[in-house]
Structure formats: structure tokens, C-alpha cells
Design a protein that fits this description.
Blueprint (H helix, E strand, L loop, with lengths): L4 E5 L2 H18 L4 E4 L3 H15 L9 E4 L1 E3 L10 H8 L11 E2 L8 H14 L5 E4 L21 E4 L2 H7 L12 E4 L2 H5 L3 E6 L5 H9 L17 E6 L4 H6 L1
Parallel strand pairs: 1-10, 2-3, 2-6, 3-5, 6-9, 9-10
Antiparallel strand pairs: 4-8, 7-8
Length: about 250
Amino acid sequence: MVTMQIFCEKDYDAMSRRAAQIIAAEIVHAPGCVLGLATGSTPEGAYKYLVDWCKAGLLSFRDVRSVNLDEYKGLAPDHDQSYRYFMQRNLFAHVDIRPENTRVPDGLAADPDRECAEYDAYIQSLGYVDLQLLGIGRNGHIGFNEPGDCFIRETHVVDLAESTIEANSRFFASPDDVPKQAISMGIGAIMGAKRILLAASGADKADAIYKTVCGPITPRCPGSILQLHPNVVLVADEAALSKVNAAS
């Protein structure tokens, strides 16, 4: 089993608060830090805590710079299911972060390959990420790095797995409306982060978390690559950690 710092929290709210505390501590320690941010239902609770603390004057994002993991290909930034819109609604619009210091892949880029290359170059220009927040898919994907035959290092256009499309269909009017591709930060940029915070909640993530922590390192479970990172913190609720706890 990989050695990483693991926090087992009672439920989603406790998991969210713990994750937010770790992010807030990073900002307090280094006000000009680079945060790698994630979207989806997992980080929503953590973002709410961060917003509350910022509004209370306990935290400032003024000098923080952020890069997001991914964006749906074909969705405009103001589309209500785009990840730029998600970040605005759940975090950016409610804290004092400077808009020019936030970066999300451009889902409407005329030249997606160029957008991917420029995204990697931007992350490198920042000296990589100080703290990378990750969720995990039921199939073990991190960002939108889906299971496959190899780990893809660079930011790239991804054909989304059917299981991912199915999982995300609850946010759209129908499964047919879910984009079939996304632009995702690659494994290289994720692993280049100085510290990684992996968050997970719910029994439906238990298998992915078990394979990530206890299984072999394989691109069939992209999260398993985190076993090679020297500084990973896993924050999960009891349901998500149930299989890991049973094995320990």
C-alpha cells in the first residue's frame, strides 16, 4: 500500500471542511501560491467554506493564481455547464481573486492542440502548481485523464469514456447533450504539483479510491499514478474509504 497522509472524515460536510482547511492553510502560508482547481460535486462543499471564510475576512485570494484541470470541448465560458461557469458560480465571483489570475482551458479554442500546448507552457511559467486539488471518477480518472493504454503527459483533447458521460449526464437535460470531448491537464502537470490534495465522497468512489491507494500503478486506473508522488493528502469520507479501511 502506498504511503500517503489520509484523513477519514465522517461525511461529505466534514470531508469538505477538512479539504477547505488544507487549501486555506496553503493560502495563508503562501498568499501568492498557485492553486490547481477542480470542478464537479466533490469540491463544491470545500469552495463554500472558502467563500464563507473569505467573506468573514479570514482569508484572501487577492494574490492567488489558479489553473483548472479541465473544460468541456465545445462549451462557451458562459454556458451553464461549462467549468469556467462552475468556477465563477462556486468560487471566483464570491472571493477577491483577480480575474486575470484565473485560467481555465478554452473549450471554444479554434486550434485545440495549440490551446493545450499554451496551457502547459503557462503552467510551466508559473513554476507548476503549489497545491493541486483533485477529485476522482468512478473509473479512476483524475482531471479528464480517462483509463487507457498509457499515461498522457501533456494537456490534451480527451474522448470521454461512456461511464464519464453517464455520470455527468445528471447535469444536462439528456445524455445526448453531454459533450463527448474535453480538454484536460495531462498527468505531467498534475504530477508536477508540489502537493496534491485528493478528495472523495460516497460509496460509489470506494472502488476507485481502493485501486488508487492499494492497487497496481496502471493507466487503467489513472489515479494510481499518485502513488509515485511524494506529497499526496487524501481526504475522504467513511463511505469512500470503506474498501481501503477494510484492507488495512
